[in-house]
Amino acid sequence: MSKTFSKQNTLPHLPVAHFQEACDRYLRVVKPLVSSEQYEKTVVAVRKFISDGTAPELHRKLVERSKVKDNWLEEWWDTAAYYQVRAPVIIETNPGLVSEDVPSLKSIPSSRVQTWRAAQMVHSAMHFLKEIQNNTLEPDHNSCMSQYARLFGVCRIPAENQDRLINYLGQPNGLPTKHFLSEFQPCNPKHIVVISKGHFFSVNALSDSSEVISVDGIESQLLKIVQITQNLQHAGNGSIGILTASDRDFWTKAREALILSSPLNKESLETIQKALFVVVLDEDSPQPQNIVRFLIAGDARSRFHDKHMMIIFKNGKSGLTFEHGATD
Fold it and tell me: Quick one: pLDDT at residue 297?
């Protein structure tokens, strides 16, 4: 079997489209979105952009940049489209993916449907993580595998002007390139964070020796959390999660205030940040046609939008939502 990152150095660089091709494509995209008058003005502007030498000169500079960058666009795109954006990440950037139903779920008692499904997903994810760490995951055909280094143990950190991206697992063995924005603070995390009714819990998904914990072992921890929270009020607006759905500058200031106000706050935030990912045991039971809406715009008090999240609903439906800048 080929090693996960064995083809990285053989991949072609991201090509630069010829400026005429790019301009033609731009006009085709714009046409149905504007009025006839606006479109004619756009055509005139594009023609001037080409004829006055601006387009050829910019194209020349992009070609030169592409010679020294594997991906000439990545740095600009990740920075401008994600980490410098001050709008909330919820809906604006973070996408949602719906998981397929599992036929065997029908045989599970209703009281365990959610925890059983969550345990299965976590257990599978841990085996996937081990393949990445052991460099045994078969590489996608002619595709860059570098983003697999940012699937686990990463967290977006709000900051003034531009957010940060911290990777708590470190650079994977065999990956020859380093993501320009990733800050590596390897600490070998073995836990996930579970959110239930707005309350946050740390759950071990790997043993002390970094072995994958069994499905039963994971579910037993989840059942304890459900047992604890069923007698608790929802955390409500006191949940830290709701802040991750707010404007990035507001979240930056709020996070700093929380850290300064209490050592326990700082420790709790670091536990969340360092988690391999977040699992949400959601109180809702959406129908199939509504799952995406609940994934990307569900109860923000039971989310942590700066992390990749598995969301499992009461009825066993499930999906993912993830911090888009880390894995575009």
Answer: 92
